[in-house]
């Protein structure tokens, strides 16, 4: 890869980080997608000495075919194409290229799917089992129950829950401040069950911090047993361990609790706009996927109940 082309990628990533203030996860995704694009262009253009102006519509179509051959799904291909489009828009705005070749090809149509979620009986089973384990008072079990309750109570993303600081929780007011995509902040209510679990976790957390002394992170709320902010993998492993006990073959994850939160609200008649705000979705269309789950439930009730269904 020619040094000028490489420098423009670095400049773009710095622009995203410093001027657009994108989240670390978004920055990582852009870096990964553009690295994939660059790795493809060298062999395709037949030279390491190339520039971004040489990329045309045929190159873009070949790149999408390359991603398909690698086995990437339509959503992943669409995300990569979006990153390339944004990069070229940046180049065009800064007079580095005359046109944006990524705009000449369409994104693959993604298949619609109903997100995996727990039904109410599974939720009751999950929390009863987790509460029984936590009653023994062991730090990981008390913490894991608090995380389960907060995921379901507030509909958080994994990164949002992991990023919570102690100052973000206001259990007297029953709310938590979270930082979503694009570092956008929102206030989300916290239910009574979650508040009780969080208060109990605060007690054992404070004891752990006192025991570890200066080695403990006093800012982060959810801590490992070593006193550090719990990693994304640590959160996922703790939650998936419980979810697999409820439905072993369903492939449920922390995001399944977010899906469950939204589905149960809509099933109970919550306003779609309100659910959108609670989830932190920029577009109502993103929230509407959960209405499909509710419609499927209504169809099932209709089929079972209507005499001429």
Number of strands: 3
Helicity range of the residues? 55-70%
Rg, Å, rounded: 23 Å
Overall pLDDT score: 89
Query: Which structural class best describes the helix and strand composition?
Result: mainly alpha
Architecture per CATH nomenclature, i.e. the level-2 architecture of the largest domain: Orthogonal Bundle
According to CATH, what is the topology of the largest domain?
Answer: hpI Integrase, Chain A
> Which runs of at least 5 residues are low in confidence (pLDDT < 50)?
none
Distance between the termini: 63 Å
The H-level CATH homologous superfamily of the largest domain, spelled out, is Intergrase catalytic core
The largest sheet, given as strand count, sense and whether it forms a barrel, is: 3 strands, antiparallel
Strand content: under 5%
- The 3D shape can be described as globular
Instruction: Give the strand order, joined by hyphens, for the main sheet.
Output: 1-2-3
The H-and-E topology, N to C, reads as HHHHHHHEEEHHHHHH
Briefly, what CATH class of the largest domain? Mainly Alpha
Number of discrete domains: 2
Total number of helices:
13
Walk me through the structure:
The protein has 309 residues and is mainly α. It folds into 2 domains: 102 residues, Tyrosine recombinase, N-terminal domain (DNA polymerase, domain 1); 185 residues, Intergrase catalytic core (hpI Integrase, Chain A), CATH 1.10.443.10. The protein is built from 13 helices and 3 strands; from the N terminus they run αααααααβββαααααα. The protein has a 3-stranded antiparallel beta sheet. Helix 5 crosses helix 9. It is globular and about 65 Å long. It starts with a helix and ends with a helix. The model has no long low-confidence stretch (mean pLDDT 89).
């Amino acid at each position: 890869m020619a040094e000028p082309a490489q420098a423009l990628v670095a400049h773009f990533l710095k622009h995203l980080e410093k001027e657009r203030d994108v989240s670390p996860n978004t920055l990582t995704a852009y870096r990964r997608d553009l690295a994939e694009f660059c790795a493809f262009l060298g062999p395709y253009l037949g030279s390491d000495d190339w520039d971004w102006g040489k990329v045309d519509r045929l190159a873009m179509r070949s790149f999408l075919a390359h991603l398909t051959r690698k086995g990437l799904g339509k959503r992943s291909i669409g995300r990569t194409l979006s990153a390339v489009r944004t990069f070229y828009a940046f180049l065009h705005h800064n007079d580095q290229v005359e046109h944006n070749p990524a705009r000449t090809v369409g994104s693959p149509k993604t298949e619609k799917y109903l997100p995996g979620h727990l039904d109410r009986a599974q939720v009751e089973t999950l929390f009863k089992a987790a509460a029984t384990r936590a009653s023994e008072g062991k730090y990981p079990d008390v913490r894991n129950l608090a995380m389960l309750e907060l995921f379901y109570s507030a509909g958080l993303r994994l990164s949002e829950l992991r990023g919570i600081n102690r100052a973000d929780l206001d259990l007297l007011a029953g709310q938590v401040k979270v930082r979503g995509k694009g570092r956008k902040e929102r206030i989300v209510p916290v239910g009574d069950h979650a508040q009780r679990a969080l208060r109990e976790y605060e007690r054992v957390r404070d004891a752990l911090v006192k025991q570890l002394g200066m080695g403990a992170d006093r800012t982060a709320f959810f801590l490992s047993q070593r006193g550090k902010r719990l990693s994304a993998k640590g959160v996922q492993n703790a939650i998936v361990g419980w979810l697999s006990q409820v439905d072993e073959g369903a492939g449920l994850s922390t995001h399944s609790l977010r899906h469950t939160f939204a589905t149960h609200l809509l099933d109970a008649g919550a306003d779609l706009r309100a659910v959108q705000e609670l989830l932190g979705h920029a577009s109502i269309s993103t929230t509407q996927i959960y209405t499909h789950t509710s419609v499927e439930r209504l169809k099932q009730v209709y089929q079972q109940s209507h005499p001429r269904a």
